[in-house]
Structure formats: structure tokens, C-alpha cells
Amino acid sequence: MSTIGSPPPTPVSATQSNVILVTGGSGLVGSALRYVVEHETADSTYGKRKGEEWIFLSSSECDLRDIQQTRKVFNKYRPKEVIHLAARVGGLFANMSSQQTFLRDNLLMNDSVLQVSHEIRVKKVVSCLSTCVFPDQVTYPLTEEKIHLGQPHSSNFGYSHAKRLIDIQNHAYHDQFGDQFTSVIPTNVFGPGDNYNLQSAHVIPGLIHKCYLAKKNQTPFVVFGSGKPLRQFIYSRDLAKLFIWVLREYKEIDPIILSVAEEDEVPIKEVANAIIEAMNFRGPVEYDTSKADGQYRKPASNSKLTKLMKESGTKHFEFTPFKTALEESVEWFLESYDNGARI
Ligand code: NAP
Ligand code: GDP
Questions:
Q1: Which ligand 1 atom is the nearest neighbour of the CA of 31?
Q2: Residues 70-81 pLDDT 10s
Q3: Which chain regions cross the lipid bilayer (predicted)?
Q4: pTM of the complete model beyond 0.70
């Protein structure tokens, strides 16, 4: 039964069914997906397959918080599959200052995308959660079945509850209608095309931008918090390849963690030092401990991913070394600072 005000389902016909629609296609992860699809050869595991048409949406084409606009754009492209990346995203400090906006924007976007995908019978939707969906008080490492075992950390409860709900929505659509909607859980992502805005950035783009300004203005490089918290970072182009693997090979409704190994946690202080080196910064460094540290650590296990990739016959996945990925991100930032970077 369709909901009040929504049109009856309009199935995709076989001739219309080669479109892969990426919501949030203009963002950090979306631009990495575009890069991988355009740069990997067709015979590689992650390249664009013959006949596939990839469409990368941005908010300028459709505000996904509005279900009517979402219907219009989905009916225009008639996707066979959807990678749903669009979200209101931000670092610790953006989340702390706008819990309601993070909650509502993400709830609305997720509802529109999943409901319209259901209506037009999209064959598979892969949505994106984040490791902040996990409970704050839980035994480590984080594994997929622990998502709903307790309250998330208070620093980003709006965003994390909206993201958690995607897993519930996926199960409800599957349970009632058989829809193949699933989700992935990446750790902290960084790379070319990131959001370098000082108010809303995650830690790596935020620190790259601050280090650049400190060098230029000959002022101290200020790192927020104690520098002690630990994070697992994933390079956006590695994540993009794993997304493509999930789209093609992953069969479950339950989420799957996309992460480097558990032992690859990096303290924020080491991140700051790596940025100092990559930027060749020689000035003073200060830690502003009046600013929040957020969650101390949230180490995630990638054992489900490793096991299933092996079982699917995919060759061993090599993550880009952190230093190389950081240097490529810094290079992109320096090239794009005056024209193109989101700052
Ligand atoms: P991002 O760079 O901020 O990009 C967000 C994307 O969403 C942009 O393409 C943006 O379009 C689009 N968008 C935002 N509001 C929209 C709206 N109302 N209607 C339509 N599109 C809208 O984010 P990202 O880092 O690539 O994140 C991608 C996914 O990964 C998200 O689901 C996020 O929750 C998840 N994730 C990210 C991280 C991380 O560290 N970055 C970690 C874990 C999970 P415009 O740019 O055109 O406005
Ligand atoms: P999280 O991983 O979801 O907590 O989000 P972030 O990517 O924003 O990382 C937050 C961690 O980095 C916290 O421990 C912050 O104290 C620390 N941090 C240090 N300097 C900065 C900064 O300039 N911006 C941000 N966003 N975080 C910073």
C-alpha cells in the first residue's frame, strides 16, 4: 500500500536500468567515487562496467529534504541502483552547535531517498552511516551488531540518531516489501574535495587549513583539544572503491564497517604532526584544551569486510598509507585554495 499523497510505484523497465545514481555526488566521498569510476579501467574490480551510467547529484539539482523534488529527479534518471551519500555532514564542533539541524536534515533526506527508491523499485540502495552511530559505552572493537546497544556519544547525538535510523528503515523496507536496502559504516574520511571550512570541517581538513593560515600569517598553529583522542582515518578514494565492492558484491541488509584495521588508530597529535611535516610548517604549535576532545576513541573492526571480500574472490585490498593519502590531500588543498576548495 502506498502512503497518502504518494503516487503508486512505477517500476523501472529493463531498458531503463543501467543508471547508478549517487546522491551527494559533489561531496568528499561522491567526488572520490567519480574519480575512481573515471580512472579505474573497465576490467578492474572497481572500474565502470560496460553499459553503466553513473549520475552524480548535487544539492543544486535537487534538495533531497523535499520528497517532491526527490521524486522528480529520481523519475528523471530512473536509477537501477542508488548510492546514497547526501547528508548534512560536519566535524565535532559543527555537530555540537547544531544538533537539531543535523537530526532533521538527515532524517528528511534519508526518508525521501529511501521512500522514492522504494516507489520506483530501485534494485539496491547503499546508504552511508558513520562510526559515531555506535553507543558511547560499549566494548571495543566496534562491530556491526553493536549499533543499537546504547546511547551514542552526546557530542553528535542529532546526526548519529538520524544515521542509526537508516539501518532501521532498511530493515523495515526489507521486512515489509523485500527491498534490498543496505548501509555501510565508514570511519573518519578525508581526501581531495573535502570540506575545508574552519567552522564545519572534520579534523584533518580543519587542521590542514589552519596550518596553511598559520604558515602564511606567521601565527601559531592551534590544534583543538588535548591531541590525545584516537581516530581511524580512511582515504576517500579507498572508501570509494569499497563502496563499489559493496554495491556489486554485498548481499546483506545489515550494515558493514568500511575501515582500516583496528590497530591503525592515530592520535590527533600525530595527525597534527603529519600535517606540519606535509605543509613544511616551522612555527609554534599550541593545543587549546578549552576546546572539546569529543569521544576519546571508537575503534572499529574491519573483520567482516576482510572476510567477505576474501569469500567473494576479490583480491586483497591495499589501503593507501596514511602519509601518502595526507600528502595527496594537502596537495589538492594547496592547488584548490584560491579556486575550488570549500573553505
Ligand atoms: P560532504 O563532502 O559534506 O558532501 C555532502 C553531500 O551531500 C554534498 O554532495 C551535498 O551537495 C549533498 N547534500 C547536502 N545537503 C543536501 C540536500 N539537502 N539535498 C541534496 N544534497 C545534499 O560529505 P561527505 O564527507 O562526502 O559525506 C558523504 C557521506 O559519508 C555522508 O552520508 C556522511 O554522513 C558519510 N560519512 C562521512 C564521514 C566523513 O568523515 N566525512 C565519515 C563517516 C561517514 P552540495 O555540495 O551540492 O550542497
Ligand atoms: P569526530 O571524529 O566525529 O569526533 O570529528 P572530527 O573529525 O571533527 O574530529 C574531532 C577530534 O579532532 C576531536 O578530538 C577534536 O578535539 C580534534 N580536533 C583538533 N583540532 C580540530 C579542528 O581544528 N577541527 C576539528 N573538527 N577537530 C579538531
A1: 26
A2: 999 999 999 999
A3: none
A4: yes
